[in-house]
Amino acid sequence: MKEHLISAHEIRLPNEFSIDNACLTYRNINLLELVKKHGTPLKFTFLPSITHKIKIMKDYFKLAFDVNNYKGKYQYYYCTKSSHFNHVLRTVLSADVGIEISSACDTDLISSLVKTGDLPPDTQIICNGYKTEEYLTGIFKLIRDKQCTILPIVDSKSELERYIEYSKTLTNMSVGIRLNMSYISSYARESRFGLLPEDILYHYNTGIVGNDNLKLTTLHFFNDKGIENTDSYWTTLAEVVRFYCYLKRINPDLTTLDIGGGMPFKDNLDHNLHISELIFRMVAIIKDICTLEEVDEPDIITEFGKYTVAESTGTLFKILERKKGNEQDWAIIDGSFITHLPDTWAIKQNYPVLPINNLENDLIPYTLGGITCDSADFFPNNADTKAIMLPDTHDEQFVAFFHTGAYQEALSGFGGINHCLIPAAKHIIIDENALKEIVVSTFSERQSSKNMLEILGYQ
Ligand SMILES: Cc1ncc(COP(=O)(O)O)c(C=O)c1O
């Protein structure tokens, strides 16, 4: 074991972390005090991180536009599916963004924000995803209510037919179309989303051209592997932009390219993502192709989910026990990866993990185990991630997973029934007031056994 020893001072910590009195602080918040006060497992969401990330992204685009002499505009959209919580949506909306939604219930979420006055008038709403009858009803209601600007993104032929029909009773409806990317050789996979180029052209020519009430303004695509600095991503983007130019020549109403989500977040502490370089290259490619094709460069929309919210949240556990193993030692957390951080189990997602206290001790490697009976309930569980380093001590120990703010509650089902009836963690919100002082409030207490039994039909 000895050869694995490191000291806490050898961990390279990003600026938002420091070690104070052998305890970890995050943005000057003493995490040991937090867990002592609120208990574990505990989720905290630091709201200012969200607006900060949005601002940085807007700045990156502005710089890339200026340097490339790019004429289009940039609009940041937040995709609700990465975190639907009201405190997240209200924070996001304070940063002048549009919202991307993906289901019928999402339209009710928008109506609710309108009712409470949290949705600024004329906020742009993009409606993505498959449109069920219920979803279409919600979209048409939002259009009629005129409280925000609605842009449905057509995912199928039958959906487009509904808008063509609806446009007979309405003026000035705009839609986008999602491009099915299966035809692009560098994309190399089959996709069920959107329409192939020939179908887009056919439907444009038969249903949209000459229809004064219906405009196709936006081409949408989503690279499901995310935005990454790889030849395959850049080649795929270039193909999409070429099709945009082709469509633009036929359809002058086309003004916008929606490049979807997929901007990465920091899933380990060493990660230097070079996001400004990704944005710069993206803008340069779009500009160059449009110049060659003699087409006005499009306005650009992004729908960043995990980029916006992942880094706002941390999930804190107590170590219940350490156990000797054959090849590795185990530390058992007072929660479950399957319940509290399901992406670690489902897609082998990595997160930055740090011990919270006892940092005067040397650190030794452990695999963390959850308290369910499930042999898959452990972390790390992928070859890229090294063991978790914990202080070599018998004292009470806490550990923090950072950047856990995207998708985890939506996937595990916040407040529902989870594996082995492990309850949802207590969740607190951390914000700053006008004087930049930290304000902590409780969003939800730890889920009760009573709540679970009620859901399951027990009295
Ligand atoms: C259409 C669309 N837009 C945006 C997103 C957000 O992706 P991310 O959280 O990777 O930014 C998704 C995620 O599935 C999506 O399907």
Automatic annotation (TrEMBL):
Ranges for domain Orn/DAP/Arg decarboxylase 2 C-terminal: 315-405
Any matching Pfam family: Orn_Arg_deC_N
Alphabetic keyword roster: Pyridoxal phosphate
Keyword Phosphoprotein in record: no
Matches recorded under Gene3D superfamilies: Alanine racemase, Lyase, Ornithine Decarboxylase, Chain A, domain 1
Co-factor(s): pyridoxal 5'-phosphate
Protein name: Arginine decarboxylase
Organism of this sequence: Sphingobacterium tabacisoli
InterPro entries given in the database record: Ala_racemase/Decarboxylase_C, Arg_decrbxlase, De-COase2_C, De-COase2_N, PLP-binding_barrel
Domain Orn/DAP/Arg decarboxylase 2 N-terminal span(s) in chain numbering: 71-310
